[in-house]
Amino acid sequence: MLNLEKIRLMTRLTVYEEGGGTRDRRTAGFFPGDYVFAQMVWSFVTGTIAWGICAAVYCGYYFEQIFFSVYEDAAGPVLRFAVLSYAAWIVFFLLVTFLVYRKRSIACQRRRRLYEQDLDAMLAICEEERAVPGGSAGVPR
Amino acid sequence: MNNNAVNRLRESLILFYKKQEYIIVPVFRFVVTLCLLLLLRTHLGAYGPAGAPLQNTLLNVIIALFCSMLPPGFTAAILALVMVWDLYRLSLEATALCAALILVCLLVYYRFAPRDSVILLLMPIAYAVNLHYAVPVLAGLLFGPGAAVPVVFGLLFTRYVLLVEKLLPVIGRDAGGAVLTSESLISNFRALVDGMMNDRGLIVLAAALAAAAVVVCFIRHLVMAHAWITAITAGCILELVILLIGDMRFGTQIDLTMVLAGIVVSFLIAQIVRFFLFHADYLRIENVQFEDEDYYYYVKAVPKVVASGPETEEEDVFSP
User: What span, in angstroms and rounded, lies between the C-alpha atoms of B110 and B80?
Assistant: First the structure.
């Protein structure tokens, strides 16, 4: 006779493993703090490149003004603006990264916990089936 | 057609989709990619030199076929490359700005949510048929509040192509005797940046679409009856209000008839999507209360609308 609870659990386990499970396994390979920190480092790199691109567009647009301010040794305000805008952008971008990846890390832990509970329940059912004389316990992959 | 027949139709369509998903999804991707390539060809192809990739129909079909087997993120990357390549043949300045936009989009947003690329792909097509008001509403319903970002980037790319098309007689490689000087390079670049930054219509539209996506997502997640319908209605009204305020405040000169028509049709499209994805019967809500050792539970269960039983056709019975 079919064990409906076992089928339900196996389906749920398979859906998770073939869905977000692979990504979660990668995420769970880190301590939550390390994971968020690694993402923030990566965000620092991408944010800096993005800011560099925007700065290049800005320099292209105000090429003459910037060129003359550098030529006349009056590049102070331009540099101050560049540093301030970069600092503001990076702080904002890192803050967003921190919030997004912290939330993802917590959600990943929750999903992993549920997955492990399902796995335990599955193993318990298999053990029960093995204990029954003549029972065949299909071991999940 | 009574309610039961409609529900039966819905269920049979969903069943059909589930059975034929492996065909429907690639066909959808193929059609979307081909539409995007044809749109690019319509706007930029006419100005390109003979033999440009966009003017080759067979190549377009091959690219679309290839993209039909790829996830939306890869499709977006391939289309971005095609766009940059074609712009490179037309104008160096337009290519530089386009590449900058794509890179910023990639670095800033797609680092967080690479799965939302489908919004980016649908936006230009929706814009071409004046249904771009539907995209943020659907994005808010089906994705998170962050979906506002690809909506805005999709709009930016669309309007950028239109701007390049408009400015090509001035900034194109063939314009001005085909002599590219540093002055012309900078002035062309400025013309493009000005065209984007001074387009108040674009800014107001981007604000309207982004706000609609966020508000729709927020309302949809509220614990209340008719959340989806309320979210769709609020999103459409918000778009209209922001566009009207933008018109009055900044003189964006919107075509009210087109805007109203677009929003009404978008509302209907969103309702159709809601009908297929979230069809709840709010008249049969059940409130259940129970408790265990630690908690009291107050549960509100909203039943799904399902077709009831096999359809029985009324037969006329003739007595002899």
Answer: 14
Give alpha helix (H) positions in chain B: 3-44, 57-67, 72-90, 92-104, 117-128, 134-142, 148-171, 182-197, 200-220, 227-250, 256-277
Q: How far is the CA of B265 from the CAs of B86, B120, B154, B236, in angstroms?
A: 33, 20, 20, 10
Distance from CA of B294 to the nearest CA of A (A): 20
- B185 close to B93: Cβ distance less than 8 angstroms: yes
Condensed to tens digits (0 to 9), the pLDDT of residues B157-208 reads: 999 999 988 888 777 766 655 566 777 788 888 888 888 888 888 999 999 9
DSSP 3-state assignment of B258?
A: helix
ipTM for the assembly: 0.73
Is B26 buried (19+), middle (13-18) or exposed (0-12) by CB count in 10 A? middle
Instruction: Measure A46 CA to nearest chain B CA, in Å.
Output: 5
Mutate to test the interface with B, among A61, A92, A102 (most CBs of B within 10 A): A61
Cα–Cα distance measured from residue B87 to residue B81, given in angstroms and rounded to the nearest whole number: 10
What is the bridge-based pairing of β-strands B286-291 and B296-301? antiparallel
**Quick check: pTM over 0.90?**
no
* Residue A140 and residue A10 in contact, taking contact as beta carbons nearer than 8 Å: yes
d(CA B87, CA B94): 6
- Which two structure tokens, joined as six digits, stand for A117? 């509970």
Q: How many Cβ pairs within 8 Å bridge chains A and B?
A: 36
